[in-house]
Amino acid sequence: MEFFGYKFEKIGKQGATEKSFVAPSDDTAVETIRAGGYYGTYLDLDGTATTENDLILKYREIAMMADVDIAIEDIVNEAMANLDNEDPVAINLEQTNLSSSLKKNIETEFKFLLSLLNFNIKSHDLFKRWYIDGRIAFHKVIDTAKKTEGIKDLRYIDPRKIKKVREIKKEKDPRTGVEFIKSIDEYFLYNERGIAQKSTTTTTTGSPNALRVTKDSIAYCPSGLVDQDKNIPLSYLHKAIRPANQLRMMENALVIYRITRAPERRIFYVDVGNLPKLKAEQYLKDLMTRYRNKLVYDSSTGEIRDDKKFMSMLEDFWLPRREGGKGTQIETLPGGQNLGEITDVEYFQRKLYQALNVPLSRFQNETNGFNFGRVAEINRDEIKFAKFVSKLRRRFGFLFDDILKTHLILKNVITENDWTTLKEQIRYDFKTDLFYAETKDQELLKSRVDLLSQVAEYVGVFYSKKYVMKEILKLTEEQIKEMEKQMAKEPPLPINEPTAKGD
Q: Is 168 contained in some domain?
């Protein structure tokens, strides 16, 4: 089958001495197969998921839980701060050695790519999809007749319908007998009906409707989490599957227990006289059927379904009593005790939030909430959470690397060799409204200014101005140059001389 899409040809080829028997590592959890072999991913997660597609559905299922959704929204809102009149993300080229005109050109093209993604509006939804599914993919649409115009459109692909595959061809060394890698071919398999992964008879082309797409035609960004044993990409929700299921079971069990144990139960002693055993049992059953009604609890909706309006006799006891007893008698048993205890539910709820890396203080209306004081007083969990969000942002930035590389190369702004160096110097500045970050910057600036006031009299004697600006104020070279330009244009500030006492 022929490939669909376009492909960049790398300049230069591997020398004859550059041989290895190990495939290059890849944090995308690409599926590696022998040329002409089979592919298939198998997963057994407590019997709930058997394929990678089932696992994605599992992630989406638990993401719909109220507790999980609240935590996810907290994470996404911190990562993608949609501030008024500001782009959610901007490219940072300060560490590059590019000319000012080239930097401006790259910044313009980056804004164009953001507009293709409609990122100003959809940033929250795209990041949430990536976080839940553990991967996100786009088809890079170009005009094959006008490739130099770059990417024309970016179309979202359901991760259940696409899979990255690495096909390896090996050859045996006649002298040592060791198999070395001859060539590596990476591509994507796309199937509108989903990639078949259960059948061991499925070849690299998948089902007859599968399409092989070149790697350069797809922008693919995984979470970076990999199951090393099964070599599949995981979502950040993966470790929350177990506590989420446990919490759901505990909540359902709590509701059922309260429904069945909360009401007072009764014991019916029915006088059956001298009826034979069989007739006595039938008489007792007739009475039970007449007055008893069974309630059904629906765990999916949390509702109790009852077709009749009779009082429930679900937990009542019916006992026959022979002639000579006290006759028909009804006794009442007390209802369940300690029904207000939810310590076990709260335990699994804490375990769920811990698995999602969200501070517990955000969900507790207690004195240990977020402290709007000094940085030293900020909850330690908030600091960990800020670092976690920063890690997510850096990982999500790989998506921008992929589409930006393709776009710049197609438009002849840079070459593929240039990108190898450039990608290590590019940074993406995500807008943030984290109070922790703002407070931290304020406290750092205050401490630096205090230190500056202590060494001010030594500036020009033991320390140069540039040294003070770099080592004490921690300004970059570009910031220093910009400061000097601005101060040269600004008029000097008036100096207020001290007045005499009594003036």
A: yes
> What single letter denotes the amino acid at residue 277?
K
CB 405, CB 91: distance < 8 Å: no
Residue by residue, what is the 3-state secondary structure of 16-60?
Answer: CCCCCCCCCCCCCCCEEEECCCECCCCCCCCCCCCCHHHHHHHHH
CA-to-CA distance for 347 and 53, rounded, in angstroms? 31
Please tell me whether residues 403 and 307 are part of one structural domain: no
**CB contact set of 222 (below 8 Å; sequence gap of 6+):** 27, 28, 29, 134, 135, 233
Both 272 and 221 in one domain: the answer is no
Q: Give the HSE-up count for residue 321: Cα atoms under 13 Å, Cβ half-sphere.
A: 14
Q: Are residues 185 and 305 in the same domain?
A: no
Shared-domain flag, residues 276 and 425: no
Whole-number pLDDT of residue 14: 41
Please tell me whether residues 74 and 48 are part of one structural domain: yes
Q: What is the mean pLDDT of residues 422-427?
A: 90
Note the pLDDT of residue 59. Answer: 95
Which residue range(s) make up the domain with 448? 437-489
Q: Is the pLDDT confidence value at 293 over 70?
A: no
Task: Clarify whether residues 157 and 225 are in a common domain.
Answer: yes
pLDDT score of 481:
84
Number of domains in the chain: 3
Q: Which helix (H) or strand (E) holds 186?
A: strand 179-190
Tell me, yes or no, whether 448 lies in a domain: yes
Which pTM was predicted? 0.72
Tokens of 105: 């050109």
Out of 297, 314, 333, pick the residue that ends a domain.
333
Exposed, middle or buried: residue 327 (CB in 10 Å: 0-12, 13-18, 19+)? exposed
Instruction: Please state, in angstroms and rounded to a whole number, the distance separating the CA atoms of residues 207 and 202.
Output: 7
**Residue 181 and residue 21 in contact, taking contact as beta carbons nearer than 8 Å:** yes
In this structure, the answer to whether residues 73 and 183 fall within a common structural domain is: yes
Examine the domain organization and report whether 423 and 469 are in the same domain: no
pLDDT digits (tens, 9 = 90+) for 258-269: 777 777 777 777
**405 found inside a domain:** yes
Would you say residue 313 has pLDDT above 50?
Answer: no
Within 8 A by CB and 6+ apart from 464, the residues are none
Average pLDDT, the chain: 78
Local structure of residue 495 (DSSP, 8 states): P
Whether the CB-CB separation of 361 and 309 falls below 8 Å is answered with: no
pLDDT of residue 204: 40
Q: In this predicted structure, which of 34-43, 44-53, 357-366 has the lowest mean pLDDT? A: 34-43
CA dist list (Å): 53 to 26, 64, 88, 167, 207:
20, 17, 31, 21, 16
Structural domain contains residue 378: no
Q: Band of the pLDDT at 33, cuts 50, 70, 90?
A: low
